[in-house]
Every structure is written in C-alpha cells, then in structure tokens.
Amino acid sequence: MHKRNSLFIATRNKGKLKDFKSLLPKYHIRSLLDTDIPEIEETGTNFQENSLIKAKTISNLLNTTVIADDSGLVCEGLDGEPGVYSARYAGTNSDEDNNKLLLKKIKDKNRDAEFVACICLYFPSGDYYFFLGKVKGEIIDTPKGNNGFGYDPIFYVKEFDKTFGELTLKEKNTISHRKKAIQKLIESSLL
Ligand code: IMP
Question: What is the pLDDT of residue 5?
Fold first, then answer.
C-alpha cells in the first residue's frame, strides 16, 4: 500500500533525487532505485521527447502516475552540446570525465550556458503534461565546490557569485532549472 501523497520519479540519478526530495518535501518520493526495472533507453532528440519516453514507459509498467525529468547542460559555444547527451557525454558514466571533456571542448569558445529541465507528468489514463525550467550561467575553467552533481562544479552563477557546486542544496534549489520546472508543476495543481 502506498502513502496517499506518494510520488514516483522515473530516475536512478541520486543527485536528481536529492533535488526532488528537497523540492517536494510533502511527498513520499519513490524512484527506479526502489525497483528492478532495467535502464530505459533515451532515444529522443530533445529533452521533451526523452522525459515523455521515461514517464510513459514507467507509468505503463507500474500503472501509476509518474514524473520524469530529462535535463542537461546547453552550451552556447558548443552549439548546444552536451544537451541530451549530458549524462553520457564522455561515454564513461563519470561526472568528472564529462566535466573534463567539456572544459577541453569549450576552451577559447563562448562560455555562456544554461541548465534545462523538462519534467513530464504522465497519468495512467495516457494524459501527460510538460513543465520546463531553465537557469543561465557560465562555464568556468576550474571546478569549484563539492556539492551537487554532474556539471555543478563548473557552472557559475552571477546571483551567488559561486558555482552550483559551491551552493548548498537549499541555495541551489532557489534558482535551479529543476526548481523552476517543479514550481510550474506545483502551480498547475495537477498533482
Ligand atoms: P538525464 O538523466 O538524461 O536527464 O541526464 C541529466 C544529466 O544532465 C546529468 O547526468 C548531469 O550530467 C546533467 N545535469 C542535469 N541537471 C543537472 C544539475 O542540476 N546539476 C548538474 N548537472 C546536471
């Protein structure tokens, strides 16, 4: 039996889960880590398509309402890279390798960047809704801070004069792409 305010998030990413738990404190969050469902292939070409693939697949399997987030870093000087390939940019599943590759590629290029999160809310009825959140920043050369995950240590934001990796979870969640998308989801009153 699930708690009435239980929510299923279609991810295994512990960093994302931490964000979601802190942003949705009223809900009991379940995730793919609580199941033996195998990895879902992200075959979409944009954040929307991938969030829908994940949410729909899991909702159909579990017959429950599912939230999936597809997110990533979009760099101006790299024509949008790593984009939907953010998690697997270096091909090793390592955040450190991804950051190193990005820093190598972005050397001498425009460093403006944004994190984008597309959340798909999928109901067992087949109805679904998208919520988009973005935050602008700049890629810095030397990683800073041990908080967060992924590209956080090289993503600098003016508002705090710090990288996401230097922000506390609470600080990051005042301005993050995920926070903005979740805010829209909450305001939709669909949950
Ligand atoms: P997804 O699981 O396909 O959505 O991959 C998301 C990837 O984008 C993560 O593995 C990170 O590399 C990157 N990413 C998304 N959101 C964040 C964030 O809040 N901080 C740092 N990296 C992020």
Answer: 87
Centre of ligand 1 to C-alpha 94, Å, is: 12
Over residues 15-25, the pLDDT tens digits come to 999 999 999 99
Region of residue 10 (left: phi > 0; alpha: psi -120 to 50; beta: else): beta
> In angstroms, what is the span from residue 117 Cα to ligand 1's centroid?
8
The CA-to-CA distance between both ends of the chain, in Å, stands at: 19
User: What's this model's pTM, rounded to 2 decimal places?
Assistant: 0.95
Edge-first strand order for the sheet with 112-122 is 28-31, 6-9, 66-75, 112-122, 128-139, 155-157, 162-163
Q: Whose CA is nearest to atom 13 of ligand 1?
A: 72
Q: Which domains does the chain have, with CATH numbers?
A: 6-187 (3.90.950.10)
Residue 181 contacts residue 69 (beta carbons within 8 Å): yes
Catalytic residues: 70
Ligand 1 pocket (Cβ < 6 Å) reads 13, 42, 70-73, 86-87, 98, 115, 148-152, 164, 176, 178
